[in-house]
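Shapes recur. Our protein:

. . .
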Amino acid sequence: MLKYQRFEYIKFINLIIISGINKLKNIKLSTPINIGKGSRIFSYDSVISGIGSCFAQYIMEYFQSLDFNTKYNPNGIVYNAVSIAKSLDHVVNEKIYDPKCFINHNSLWHSWEHHGSFSNSNLNRLKSKINKTRTEFKKKLADSDLFILTPSSSVVYCLESEGIITANCHKYPGKNFKTKVLRTEANFAALSDCISSIREVNKHCLIVITLSPVRHYPGNLILNAKSKANLLSAIHQCIDKFENTEYFPAYEILLDELRDYRFYNVDMLHPTDLAREIIINRFISTYFSPDCITAINKKKKQLKASQHRTNNSIF
């Protein structure tokens, strides 16, 4: 009798365990973003160029590390759509920057339209680097099959003395700037100008617009949400208006699909290497051919082996 009761008890416990396992199988631990294949599929020979925020910089550096033919950010990292549009306008039309764009601060010459990586103690060397980078980028843009455009913020800093929106403040005293949030209409106009500039030198490339998922205003998340919302709405207006232009949901993948702080760095703002690799792998699976993906994976293994030997892995 005791053996029978023990058997029935064990049978009952096993049923509970099996039932629990079956329930767990049906539990969704994330909300996946459904992404179809892109309208065009690219190969390892495809030429890729891009412009935008630090997230755009990461994407392009990733492709460069895999030996793709790339060129990106002719002005360095740029966050707002107006500054990106001005950058592309100067590239495409080979414009020389106005003298008021340059300032000497903290013993360095800076450009209001360029990232601090361009800054130099010598103004002529700064201008020379700007012109060289602009020329190289235009050549690559003309040959590109894929162009990645990644704005990040609607918040801009206007230099009151010159009445211009700056791409970078270069740690200049804050009292000289006025902060402004671009409305959807202003973002749409700037992004439209970006697309028009690209089309002046390249009629055929696929333009993929992404919104950087990095939060820029941790002390004011309401401002951050407003900034992103205005920009996101403008992006989708552009997708609806312009042919051969698509949206890739990097923003939604991080915020909705990977909504867990383990996917953020210690600053709780920037995605971890794992999160960024998940996003870029989704991008690759969307826009690249099976043969190309196989070649990419092979290259990544080679890089891992090489970096393992130097104990400094990048993947």
Remarks:
- The mean pLDDT is 89.
